[in-house]
Amino acid sequence: MERIIINLKTRFFTMDSIIRTEKLYFSYDADVASVVLNGIDLEIEKGTFVAVLGHNGSGKSTLAKHFNALLLPQGGHVYVGGIDTANEELLLEIRRRVGMVFQNPDNQIVATVVEEDVAFAPENLGYPSHEIRERVDEALKMVNMYEYRQHAPHLLSGGQKQRVAIAGVLAMNPQCIVFDEPTAMLDPQGRESTIKTIRELRDKHGVTIVLITHHMEEAIDADRVIVMSEGKIVIDAAPRDVFYNVTVLKNAGLSVPETVQIIHELQDDGFSIDTKALTIEECAKAIFEALK
């Protein structure tokens, strides 16, 4: 499938990058047919919110694990803040700069009290006690979990556990957080609270966000959407340009947001309607105008 870059604004490349890949190649075994990442060239700029979409097996989660050196390239390079992830001596610094949050928060929670769990990483990095206290309090406040600091994590809801896991990463003061399908195991309420927290980290605190997901609606507010298929990037553009490229999305095994689907169905029924409406509010306004 040919890679499509639609109206990719130059601002994605004029700012300092936090993550850059060059001809990234990776396979879990020697079989050429099982290549998972096939020549990925990608740059993620500081302070941006980038969503990476793709069906199961597209390579998106494998790509995410290269961003903080959980996996290392078998070909090409990955740079984090200019550091080659193949440099084992700087592995700790790489993981300080780029943190990861995974699907199951239970796999990231290691303590029996919320604040002790959030303190785990900075303690292991050797920060002094007073700084750990400050980092823990600040991280819990950033995810609106400060009032639960003395609670037992196993008594929290799935969404609350995920926010504790995010706080544990924030306590390391990363420049970027990679979320690998963080809502996959959550109910709708947990999904909503987690995505709200992710947006606030970018909007209020300037944290670079990389969100790996297969939920189209979670990517609507991203600055940029990357679609992967068969180990390659097939679309790299602003959300509106991506989601209205319905044919390419379907070829990549993906659906479109419900708002886009509604607009297309109304167009098929003969309505003259704005084809760039994306959010629920924009969709409602477009439908109202069409009915008038």
CATH architecture: 3-Layer(aba) Sandwich
Question: Strand-residue fraction?
Answer: 15-25%
Q: Give the structural class.
A: alpha/beta
Main β-sheet, spatial strand arrangement? 1-11-10-4-9-8-7
Mean of pLDDT: 88
Task: Give a quick set of tags describing it.
alpha/beta
Please give a structural write-up.
This protein has 292 residues and is an alpha/beta fold. The chain has a single domain, classed as P-loop containing nucleotide triphosphate hydrolases (Rossmann fold). 37% of the residues lie in helices and 22% in strands. It contains eleven helices and eleven strands. The protein has a seven-stranded mixed β-sheet with strand order 1-11-10-4-9-8-7, with helices on both faces. Strands 3-2-5-6 form a four-stranded antiparallel β-sheet. β10 and β11 form a beta hairpin. α4 packs parallel to α6 and α5 packs across α6. The longest helix has 18 residues.
Task: Give the gist of this structure.
The chain is of the alpha/beta class. It has eleven helices and eleven strands.
How is this fold's topology laid out?
Elements: E1 4-6, H1 11-14, E2 17-27, E3 35-45, E4 49-53, H2 60-66, E5 75-80, E6 83-84, H3 91-97, E7 98-101, H4 114-124, H5 129-142, H6 158-170, E8 176-180, H7 188-205, E9 208-213, E10 224-229, E11 232-237, H8 239-243, H9 246-251, H10 258-268, H11 280-291
Parallel strand pairs: 1-11, 4-9, 4-10, 7-8, 8-9
Antiparallel strand pairs: 2-3, 2-5, 5-6, 10-11
